[in-house]
Amino acid sequence: MKPITDRPEAHLYVCTNERPEGKSCCKKVGGHEFFAKTKDKLIQEGIRSQFWITRTGCLGFCNDVGCVVALYRDGEAAPEIYSEVEADDFDKVWKSLTGQ
Ligand code: FES
Asked: Which of 18, 35, 83, 98 is a good FRET partner for 63, with 20 to 30 A between their CA atoms?
């Protein structure tokens, strides 16, 4: 086992999970699109190594409004978790992630 010492300032997990027909899930409410937009902007800004982003499975807050994201900051024990994240919330999540 090899420890990773090059840690990010923050790590955003975006739920893109799909659940069976008739059940709420982040895939149906823009999880993939939110993940892709955030990842693309991190690359464009050249800060992908400082701020990591990962697709994740169900975080347990499924809804019919928007995806669920969990933000882990280096040195903090518990994540910030946001549910019902819609496309219009991009700037707020971006600021929480990067401070910009
Ligand atoms: S499918 Fe995303 S929180 Fe459940």
From this structure: 98
